[in-house]
């Protein structure tokens, strides 16, 4: 292979370069193997560094990923130099050295010899959802770390995502140090990175880069198994809308759709490294419907929320959900530690000051120790009917109409906590969209909560819901009742400034902590149609004397 002209030419030398020759480093025994990627003012190669240059650079001899920067590249070189001084992140390609010559800079990385994401997508086309999950995890983890350290990209593209022979996806060094920039500029740069990340995931899912908004076809036309929540999240991020999702929000619907799968790196890797790639095995087929316990593995160990009484014997042995498959799960956001839903539009939990009503209260509050009973009209038998034939008839009807929608699980405290999170997210979606016909997906029709939400959507202040977002930050207690559960939780509001005295806010369970607006709330769940739905949602006063 001929030596490329845009890298320093290998020359014969009888002695290693002088240590003080950094500015004009001749690189006597650096041999380019093949080009990895290139742009207008840079090119990236896989090179072999001999002992002479390695000794001068105080590196180990062997393969490296080498980026040559030309033109006005001082800022990019300084950004890479600062990254070199930080602790390496597993999703960011490690920078080993930054050097300069007469008219260019060189960034020396650990070797990434298995090609780029651009090569992989070009060869593979549409990626399976499991492989998209693998890519999404690496991208979001890398960008989260870089943003925390004050870095950003002027342009993030698929060619900047490289693979190692170990099967890892990593990002090349960013070229912008955002620390000296104004706060607004920093946020703008980060928003551009989030939009670029969403565009890369769109490319992985469809095989094509996303077009302009007016020309872009819906995601489910190209990827039928993609959920509505995934499509909406990616589009909101790509278009950089006012309520742009965060990186964790991009990852959540993808992780809910499929578990990560290994990549077929022989499609992107150079032939010379095929023998060093991990063996690829086709993943075993999985059922399209994923059990709750499988989804739990994504988010780690669930918190212990069963400090209340245990579920009575004979509670529901099967919990059925509306919709089929993981794509229809109403969560749509990532359940982080302590049941946090970052960026979820959990509309309706906090009181809107000056509007004359409370979003998270019921017009007809009932005794919390005795939740409302199921409406007799049109409802299925209770959880523990007195007559065995009624129970058998109910089970037969459930098996006939919703057999493929049922998910078997033990109704433990953790399972109920997960169901609560799904119901709350469904309520968020319905209130944000105004789809009153879908209210039965989360609430018992005719319950105090359903009536309150119907009045809320019909009021003049309903338009304000689109500008609010809240997140569920804690479930502190789950207590079993005769026909369901009582849940005590805490929510946080974003974009909401409470009005009123501290005494008035405390009566609504609202508090401020370090600039955050929190509210303590109580949810009442009731058995309905083989599952649990919400009947009441009301604030918990912080100080009884304030009432």
TrEMBL record:
Key word Plastid present: no
GO molecular function, one term: protein kinase activity
Keywords: Kinase, Transferase
Protein name: Protein kinase
InterPro entries from the UniProt entry: Kinase-like_dom_sf, Ser-Thr/Tyr_kinase_cat_dom
Domain Serine-threonine/tyrosine-protein kinase catalytic, first and last residues per copy: 75-170
Region: Disordered, residue numbers: 1-33, 301-331
Pfam families referenced in this protein's UniProt entry, alphabetically: PK_Tyr_Ser-Thr
Polar residues bias: start-end ranges: 1-12
Keyword NAD assigned: no
């Amino acid at each position: 292979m001929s030596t490329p002209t845009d890298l320093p030419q290998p020359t014969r030398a009888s002695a290693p370069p002088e240590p003080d020759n950094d500015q004009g480093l001749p690189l006597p025994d650096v041999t380019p193997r093949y080009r990895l990627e290139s742009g207008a003012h840079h090119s990236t190669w896989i090179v072999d560094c001999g002992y002479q240059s390695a000794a001068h650079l105080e590196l180990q001899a062997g393969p490296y990923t080498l980026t040559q920067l030309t033109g006005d590249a001082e800022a990019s070189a300084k950004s890479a130099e600062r990254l070199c001084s930080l602790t390496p992140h597993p999703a960011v390609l490690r920078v080993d050295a930054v050097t300069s010559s007469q008219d260019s800079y060189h960034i020396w990385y650990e070797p990434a010899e298995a090609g780029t994401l651009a090569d992989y997508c070009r060869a593979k086309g549409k990626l399976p959802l499991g492989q998209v999950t693998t890519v999404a995890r690496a991208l979001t983890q890398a960008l989260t770390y870089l943003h925390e350290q004050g870095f950003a990209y002027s342009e993030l593209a698929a060619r900047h995502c490289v693979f190692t022979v170990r099967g890892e996806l990593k990002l090349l060094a960013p070229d912008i140090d955002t620390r000296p920039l104004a706060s607004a500029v920093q946020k703008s740069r980060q928003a551009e990175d989030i939009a670029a990340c969403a565009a890369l995931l769109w490319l992985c899912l469809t095989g094509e880069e996303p077009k302009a908004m007016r020309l872009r076809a819906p995601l489910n036309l190209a990827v039928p198994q993609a959920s509505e929540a995934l499509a909406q999240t990616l589009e909101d991020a790509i278009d950089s809308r006012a309520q742009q999702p965060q990186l964790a929000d991009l990852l959540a619907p993808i992780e809910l759709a499929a578990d990560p799968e290994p990549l077929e790196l022989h499609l992107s890797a150079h032939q010379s490294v095929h023998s060093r790639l991990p063996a690829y095995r086709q993943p075993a087929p999985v059922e399209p419907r994923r059990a709750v316990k499988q989804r739990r593995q994504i988010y780690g160990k669930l918190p212990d929320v069963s400090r209340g009484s245990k579920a009575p014997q004979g509670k529901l042995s099967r919990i059925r959900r509306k919709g089929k498959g993981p794509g229809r799960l109403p969560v749509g956001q990532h359940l982080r530690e302590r049941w946090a839903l970052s960026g979820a539009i959990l509309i309706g939990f906090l009181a809107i000051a000056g509007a004359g009503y409370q979003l998270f209260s019921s017009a007809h509050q009932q005794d919390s120790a005795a939740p409302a009973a199921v409406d007799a009209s049109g409802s299925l038998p209770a959880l523990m009917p007195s007559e065995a034939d009624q129970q058998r008839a109910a089970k037969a009807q459930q098996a006939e109409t919703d057999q493929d929608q049922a998910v078997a699980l033990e109704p433990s405290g953790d399972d109920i906590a997960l169901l609560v999170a799904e119901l709350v997210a469904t309520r968020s979606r319905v209130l944000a969209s105004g789809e009153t016909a879908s209210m039965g997906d989360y609430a018992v029709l005719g319950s105090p909560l359903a009536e309150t939400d119907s009045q809320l959507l019909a009021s003049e202040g309903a338009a304000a819901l689109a500008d609010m977002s809240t997140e569920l930050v804690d479930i502190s207690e789950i207590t079993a009742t005769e026909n369901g559960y009582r849940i005590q939780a805490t929510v946080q509001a974003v974009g909401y400034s409470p009005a009123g005295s501290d005494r008035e806010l405390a009566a609504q369970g609202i508090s401020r902590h370090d600039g955050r607006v929190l509210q303590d709330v109580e949810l009442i769940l009731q058995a309905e149609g083989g599952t649990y739905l919400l009947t009441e949602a009301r604030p918990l006063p912080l100080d009884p004397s304030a009432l």
